[in-house]
Write a structure and sequence with these properties.
201 residues; alpha+beta; Aminopeptidase
Length: 201
């Protein structure tokens, strides 16, 4: 069991024009604006909060510590909130965490932002916290998210049938992926290459 995962502390990570700050109440207006960029709460396969739910969304994320560490994704140049992402399902006994609860305003999608966030978070998980494995999961109908996870180099572990409620009351299957520690150096090099080629998405 890795001592660093016993109670991982909130941390700020920054690189390539993106800053990950521990999600806090003062991010509420920025998060509302990010969600309004595309009215993302209307997508049935995500958990993006409506404008009136944003404060409760942040409060819940903070209350889930230490099993979840949520971040506001910030444009380092302008200070604008672009979205949010989290470490979650942190299991010290297994040296395992997952990355999820991730969404960005529509204008930030298909840009360098997601690849940069994943490099920051995977690097922190493997190189600082000493994780043995990092998991990712998504809705079975969220094919865009599945393709994005697969572009990272994560391996598809399988599907959990009838696993979680969607916002509309239907029950989703959950597609599970993972990256193990030995795969991280190659994935890290590949993601840096993608960014250098202007293809980080």
């Amino acid at each position: 069991m890795n001592a660093a995962l016993q109670s991982p502390l909130p941390v700020t990570l920054e690189w390539n024009g993106v800053r990950l700050e521990p999600l806090a109440p003062h991010h509420a207006d920025g998060l509302r604006a990010a969600a309004a960029d595309g009215e993302l709460w209307q997508l049935r396969i995500t958990s993006v909060p409506t404008p009136e739910q944003t404060d409760a969304y942040i409060d819940k994320a903070i209350a889930m510590r230490p099993s979840r560490l949520a971040f506001a994704v910030i444009d380092a140049a302008s200070g604008a909130v672009m979205g949010t992402t989290s470490f979650h399902d942190i299991v010290p006994e297994l040296d395992r965490t997952e990355i999820g609860y991730t969404w960005y305003g529509r204008s930030r999608q298909r840009s360098h932002v997601n690849t940069t966030c994943k490099l920051l978070m995977l690097g922190h998980a493997f190189d600082t916290l000493g994780c043995a494995v990092v998991g990712l999961r998504t809705d079975n109908f969220n094919h865009t998210s599945q393709r994005a996870i697969e572009r990272l180099g994560a391996k598809r572990d399988g599907v959990l049938r009838h696993h979680a409620l969607r916002r509309d009351g239907t029950v989703r299957d959950t597609v599970m992926y993972s990256i193990v520690r030995g795969e991280w150096p190659e994935i890290k090099a590949h993601l840096h290459y993608k960014l250098q080629q202007g293809g980080g998405r």
